[in-house]
Specification:
- By secondary structure, the chain is mainly α.
- About 60% of the residues lie in helices and about 5% in strands.
- It is built from 18 helices and 2 strands.
- It has a two-stranded antiparallel ribbon with strand order 1-2.
- Helix 8 packs antiparallel against helix 13 and helix 9 packs across helix 13.
Length: about 400
């Protein structure tokens, strides 16, 4: 018998006892949830997701409607799968459903939710987002790196030209990852990737742990057992990442203390200049920028560049190659290429923006968004949501 099966059998009596105690005495006070499949003890509806959860949820939505309820372990979950329903959650009631779930991985790989990616919606998230927007991601700051980005993209294009002339097979995913790695390192660290440590491998391991199914997130009282070994892996990866980031921050501190001026100011330099200052100048006692905040922000930005940005660029190339490979495009390939260049020169970034949004609409970087924490559903008592559920798919 596997450890997981043994744990489930041992905890089943405890679950039954806790379930009986937690049930409300008055059934009328139970919250009314959208329609959904029946759940099993302990695991809920986890067994219905399979290896391709986005397809499984799509099939369930055909039966239960665009807004349905599931129970993933002990976590009540609302699944939204239509544009109209998504607008209600992500636009009309955005402030209610704008938070993040509490995941075990965030405690280890986000410095205890000190960054932006896993932080719950609130004053801290608003302040740190404002800090990044006004200090790191300003138009002038991004434009200052334009020559560097142009040089890196030009180098990629030249390598693709050489490979095409030699009729070589090109690993486009690898090329895109290398491009992202170089541009990200130069913007954040002020230099190309360092051979002293393999940051790329550590980031890939961290992203793998973030995307892994963690039983402790859905059945919390199994977390202490670490049945999957994920907690041990998270601690090991977190320690390795912290050593690398600490070395990089210390190196920048030495450069800044030496008064060296003949270098471009990178993201770490900017953050170090703000250290021990309040995130919000109007509230000097609320959140003070410390070393942990800096490392958490850096880690979030590196992870975002390595993961979603690379995936989006890869899908964009795939869509362009797919369209150019169709019979209709093949007969006028040269004319289409000339038209694309002309449109780009005439409209500037409008052409690239339209192609980018056209790609991201059918193929987003991720198959679905991050799940919302369960407590926000109880706070939203909108009659608009209830009427939409009833009109679209009556509750059986």
């Amino acid at each position: 018998m596997s450890p997981l099966t043994l744990a489930i059998f041992l905890l089943l009596p405890i679950w039954i006892f806790m379930h009986i105690l937690s049930r409300p005495k008055d059934p009328k006070k139970e919250p009314k949830l959208p329609p959904g499949p029946r759940s099993l003890p302990i695991i809920g509806n986890l067994h219905m997701l399979g290896s391709l959860p986005h397809r499984a949820l799509h099939s369930l939505a055909k039966k239960y409607g665009p807004i349905m309820s599931l129970r993933l372990g002990h976590v009540p979950t609302i699944v939204v799968s239509s544009p109209q329903a998504a607008e209600l959650f992500l636009k009309t009631h955005d402030t209610i459903f704008a938070s993040r779930p509490k995941l075990q991985v965030s405690e280890y790989l986000s410095y205890g939710t000190k960054g932006m990616a896993f932080t719950e919606y609130g004053s801290y998230w608003r302040n740190i987002r404002k800090l990044c927007t006004l200090q790191l991601l300003t138009v002038s700051k991004i434009d200052s790196f334009a020559p560097m980005r142009k040089a890196e993209v030009g180098s990629l294009v030249q390598s693709l030209k050489k490979a095409a002339a030699a009729h070589e097979v090109v690993d486009l995913s690898g090329k895109v990852c290398e491009l992202n790695e170089e541009t990200t390192c130069r913007m954040i660290f002020g230099r190309s990737s360092d051979g002293r440590f393999d940051l790329k491998t550590l980031i890939e391991e961290a992203l793998s742990l973030v995307g892994a199914f963690n039983l402790a997130d859905y059945v919390p009282y199994l977390g202490a057992l670490d049945l999957q070994g994920l907690t041990r892996s998270m601690k090991k990866c977190s320690k390795a990442l912290d050593i690398v980031l600490e070395n990089i921050v210390e190196e920048h501190e030495k450069i800044l203390s030496s008064g060296q001026q003949d270098r471009e100011t990178d993201f770490i330099d900017t953050l170090l200049s703000l250290m021990k200052q309040p995130m919000n100048p109007h509230d000097k006692q609320e959140y003070i920028i410390d070393r942990t905040n800096i490392k958490a922000i850096i880690l979030d930005m590196i992870s975002g560049a390595y993961d979603t940005s690379a995936a989006a660029i890869e899908w964009t190339f795939s869509e362009l190659l797919r369209v150019l490979g169709t019979p209709a495009a093949g007969s006028s390939l040269h004319a289409g290429y000339r038209w694309a260049c002309f449109a780009f020169l005439q409209s500037g970034t409008d052409f690239l923006h339209s192609k980018w949004t056209t790609t991201l609409s059918p193929i987003p970087p991720g198959p679905f968004s991050v799940a919302f924490p369960p407590f926000v559903v109880q706070e939203c008592r909108s009659s608009e949501l209830r009427s939409y559920i009833s009109a679209t798919f009556p509750v059986p």
